[in-house]
C-alpha cells in the first residue's frame, strides 16, 4: 500500500519495497490504537440497552468472532506459501488474489467508506472530549451555575488542523511512534473511566441495573427499546473493528519470522487486551450509571470534582484519536496516491518530494500532491463531522456497515478458497452459518443506528451543536 522512494538493493524486500522493520510490539501497538478507540466510551450505554446477560455475552462473542476471523485474514497476506508467496499488502489485493475481480468492488466500497466514516466519527469524538475539558474548567473557575456551553465546531476545526500536519507522514512505516503514544493514551482514559466507575460504585452512588437493561415504560418505550438494542450491537461491533486495516498493519512486519505467525500473536495480544478493558469499562460503567448510562462514558461523571482527573481522561482521548485517525486514514491516502501514479506514471508532480528537515532519525519530506489531496480529505471529514455530530448513532452505523463484510464475510470466503473447503462440508456449513448470523446482526444494527440518525437530523441545525 505504501508509495516509497527508490533505495539500494540491500535495503529492499522481496517485492522491491524498502525493508520492513515492524515487530510483534509495533503491530500490537497499531492494533490497540485501532481497536481501543472512541467505541469504548459507548460500551456502558450499550450495556444499559442490552442488560447484564445479553450485553456481557455480546461483548465476549464479538471479541471471539473478531479474533477468529482476524486469524483467517492474517493467512491471506501471502498467496500459497506463508513465507515466499506473493504479498497482499492491502485488503483489496487479498480479495483480488483469493476471490477474483468480481468481489473487489464490494470490498473497496465497504472498506474505504468505513475508513472515511471513521475519520468523521473520530473528529466528532475528539471534539466532544475537548469541549468537555473546556466545560469542566469553566465550571471550576466560574461556578456550577455558569453558562459554559461552547460550539463543537471550534474543536473540530482545531483537530482537523492538527490532522493536516500528521497526514503528511508518508505511510504506516512512519506511524509507529504515533501509534505507541496513542496506545498509551487509550490505556490512560480507559483506566480513568474504570477507576471513576469503581469510585462511584463503592461510594454507593451507582445506578439501577437490570438483567435486561432499560425498562420499557420506565426508561424507554417498546419501540425505543428495540431501536436502542439494535444500535447498541452496532456500537459493540464498532468497538472491535480494525479488520479493514489488518493487512496494512501486517505489511509493516519484517520477515523472518513469517508475517502471519507474528500477526496472529499481535492479534491475540491486541484483542485480548481490548476485551479486558471493554468488559471492565462496559460492566463497571453500567454498574456506575445504571439504565441512565450516557452515550459517552466520561461525560457522565459530570464536569465538577475531580475535574482534573476527568480532564486528563478527555485529553488522553483527544491525543489517542489524533493517532487513530491516521491509522484508519493511511489506507485511503495510499490507494488514491497509488491509483494516481498508475494512471499518470510520467507526471513528476505525483512523486516529487522536497526535504524540509534533513534529519537521519526523523527526516521531514513534503510532496505537493500529498499536501493538497490529504488536506482536502481532512477538510472534508471535518466539515461532515460538523454537520452530523451524533456520537452514538454514527459509531453504531459505522460498526454495523463494516462488521459483517470486512470482519466476517471476506475473511471466511478467502479462507475457504485458500484451504479448498467445500461449502457443503461440515466446516463449510459452520463457517457460512457464522457469516449469516453476523449478517443479520449487522443489518439490525444498521437499521437501529439509521433510525437514530434520522430522528436526530429532524431536530438538529447543522454547525450549531454545543456542549
Automatic annotation (TrEMBL):
UniProt-listed InterPro entries: AA_transpt_TM (IPR013057)
Domain Amino acid transporter transmembrane span(s) in chain numbering: 21-454
Transmembrane domains' residue ranges: 21-44, 50-68, 150-169, 175-198, 266-287, 307-328, 371-388, 394-412, 433-454
Subcellular location: Membrane
Key words, A-Z: Amino-acid transport, Membrane, Transmembrane, Transmembrane helix, Transport
A Pfam family this chain is assigned to: Aa_trans
Protein name in UniProt: Amino acid permease 1
Organism: Platanthera guangdongensis
Lineage of origin: Eukaryota, Viridiplantae, Streptophyta, Embryophyta, Tracheophyta
Gene that encodes it: AAP1
Amino acid at each position: 500500500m505504501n508509495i516509497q522512494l527508490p533505495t539500494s538493493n540491500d535495503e529492499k524486500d522481496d517485492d522491491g519495497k524498502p525493508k520492513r522493520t515492524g515487530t510483534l510490539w509495533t503491530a500490537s501497538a497499531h492494533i490497540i490504537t485501532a481497536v481501543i478507540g472512541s467505541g469504548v466510551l459507548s460500551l456502558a450505554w450499550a450495556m444499559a440497552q442490552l442488560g447484564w446477560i445479553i450485553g456481557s455475552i455480546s461483548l465476549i462473542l464479538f471479541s471471539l468472532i473478531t479474533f477468529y476471523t482476524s486469524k483467517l485474514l492474517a493467512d491471506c497476506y501471502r498467496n500459497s506459501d506463508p513465507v515466499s508467496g506473493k504479498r497482499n499488502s492491502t485488503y483489496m489485493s487479498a480479495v483480488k488474489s483469493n476471490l477474483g475481480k468480481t468481489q473487489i468492488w464490494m470490498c473497496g466500497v465497504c472498506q474505504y467508506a468505513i475508513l472515511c466514516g471513521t475519520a468523521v466519527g473520530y473528529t466528532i469524538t475528539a471534539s466532544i472530549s475537548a469541549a468537555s475539558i473546556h466545560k469542566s474548567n469553566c465550571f471550576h473557575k466560574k461556578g456550577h451555575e455558569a453558562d459554559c456551553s461552547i460550539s463543537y465546531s471550534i474543536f473540530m476545526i482545531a483537530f482537523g488542523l492538527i490532522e493536516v500536519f500528521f497526514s503528511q507522514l508518508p505511510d504506516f512505516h512512519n506511524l509507529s511512534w504515533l501509534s505507541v503514544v496513542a496506545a498509551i493514551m487509550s490505556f490512560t482514559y480507559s483506566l480513568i473511566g474504570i477507576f471513576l466507575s469503581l469510585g462511584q460504585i463503592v461510594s454507593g452512588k451507582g445506578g439501577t441495573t437490570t438483567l435486561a437493561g432499560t425498562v420499557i415504560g420506565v426508561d424507554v418505550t417498546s419501540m425505543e427499546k428495540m431501536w436502542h438494542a439494535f444500535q447498541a450491537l452496532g456500537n459493540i461491533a464498532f468497538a472491535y473493528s480494525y479488520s479493514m486495516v489488518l493487512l496494512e498493519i501486517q505489511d509493516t512486519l519484517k520477515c523472518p519470522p513469517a508475517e502471519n505467525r507474528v500477526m496472529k500473536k499481535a492479534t491475540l495480544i491486541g484483542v485480548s487486551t481490548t476485551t479486558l478493558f471493554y468488559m471492565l469499562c462496559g460492566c463497571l460503567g453500567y454498574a456506575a450509571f445504571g439504565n441512565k448510562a450516557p452515550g459517552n462514558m466520561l461525560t457522565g461523571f459530570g464536569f465538577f470534582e475531580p475535574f482534573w482527573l476527568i480532564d486528563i481522561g478527555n485529553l488522553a482521548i483527544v491525543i489517542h484519536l489524533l493517532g487513530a485517525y491516521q491509522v484508519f486514514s493511511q489506507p485511503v491516502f495510499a490507494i488514491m496516491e497509488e491509483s494516481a501514479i498508475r494512471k499518470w506514471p510520467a507526471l513528476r508532480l505525483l512523486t516529487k518530494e522536497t526535504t524540509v528537515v534533513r534529519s537521519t532519525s526523523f527526516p521531514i519530506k513534503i510532496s505537493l500532491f500529498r499536501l493538497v489531496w490529504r488536506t482536502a480529505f481532512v477538510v472534508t471529514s471535518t466539515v461532515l463531522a460538523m454537520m452530523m455530530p451524533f456520537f452514538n448513532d454514527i459509531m453504531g452505523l459505522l460498526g454495523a456497515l463494516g462488521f459483517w463484510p470486512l470482519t466476517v464475510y471476506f475473511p471466511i470466503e478467502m479462507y475457504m478458497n485458500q484451504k479448498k473447503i467445500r461449502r457443503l462440508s461440515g466446516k463449510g456449513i459452520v463457517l457460512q452459518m457464522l457469516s449469516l448470523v453476523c449478517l443479520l446482526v449487522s443489518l439490525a444494527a444498521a437499521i437501529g443506528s439509521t433510525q437514530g440518525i434520522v430522528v436526530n437530523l429532524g431536530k438538529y441545525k447543522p454547525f450549531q451543536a454545543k456542549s
